[in-house]
Amino acid sequence: SAVYVRSKGKASQEVGMRSETIHLPATTSQNELLALVDRLNADTAVHGILVQMPLPKHIDPSAVIRRITPEKDVDGFHPVNVGKLLIGERDGFAPCTPAGVQELLLRYGVETAGREAVVVGRSNIVGKPMAALLVQPGRGGDCTVTVCHSRTRSLAEHTRRADILIVAMGRAEVIRGDMIKPGAVVVDVGINRVEDATAPRGYRLVGDVHFESAKEVASLITPVPGGVGPMTIAMLLRNTVRAAHALAA
Ligand code: NDP
To answer: Could you say which of 3, 130, 172, 204 has the lowest number of CB atoms within 10 Å?
Structure first.
């Protein structure tokens, strides 16, 4: 989380946006945190608020997310924004990681209309909103979407049908080349640490996809690190700029 917070702050500064990181002690009460959110909601110099998860156990994350005014919820986790995404209303904020994946597909000219998209993972942060974006009518959407999770039977049978395979499982290198349809577009959202005695820090980062075997089969594939991660931050900046324009209007 600390790494993410730092890179978000740095990216904001790079594009000329003021960013403030408020560190609170782990002993902060839920009421204190809610009071801080209220203050930021009311502050006209602030256009976007995000609360970095995970929170200490004594704080209910959904109470905090619901307290952020939906117009400043640039992470896109408030139920109002989640609902707008599902309905297809475009004035809300889509969560940054799936929005970044969709933007990647668009920028690389990947046709989505009528394609089989398989999303592995059903979290509220990645899998579910990813499916919601891909199934919407219009640009970057119109997919036939399958969502897989830990109770899915025969995962490989689903992944092998995917024209566009999006993996967000949090399981290191589980998706191998033989689980991928030849020519598929593979987007690897996973970021996992695996021990590696030869690496300077004793570990390295890998995705949920086994890159070496998958790249032989896929037509396009994202690397880890460097693929979806930077897109997530870019979408956070985009959402914040949109929030600023909307709040100023
Ligand atoms: P979660 O742990 O919340 O969700 C993982 C999902 O994968 C769950 O829906 C789970 O199913 C499913 N899953 C786990 N094991 C299997 C399995 N063996 N077969 C099928 N499905 C399985 O993780 P997140 O969605 O938050 O994150 C996923 C990954 O993406 C992580 O590695 C995370 O670090 C990374 N991430 C990267 C970001 C970026 O910016 N690049 C941003 C956010 C996340 P079930 O629901 O049944 O438990």
So the answer is: 3
- Going by C-alpha positions, the residue among 148, 162, 151 that lies closest to residue 221 is 162
* pLDDT at res. 174: 98
Residue of 5, 8, 123, 231 with the most ligand 1 atoms within 8 Å of its CB, for mutation: 123
What is the total residue count of the chain? 249
Locate 208 and state its tokens.
Answer: 């949920």
13 is catalytic: no
Residue 45 CB neighbours (<10 A): 7
Atom of ligand 1 nearest to the CA of 152: 20
pLDDT tens readout for residues 109-159: 999 999 999 999 999 999 999 999 999 999 999 999 999 999 999 999 999
Q: What is the mean pLDDT of each run of 10 residues along the chain (249 residues)?
A: 90 96 96 98 98 96 98 98 97 98 98 98 98 98 98 98 98 98 98 95 96 98 96 97 96
Q: Are 1 and 191 in contact (CB under 8 A)?
A: no
Residues having CB within 6 Å of any atom of ligand 1: 97, 120-123, 125-127, 148-152, 155, 168-171, 189-192, 228-229, 232
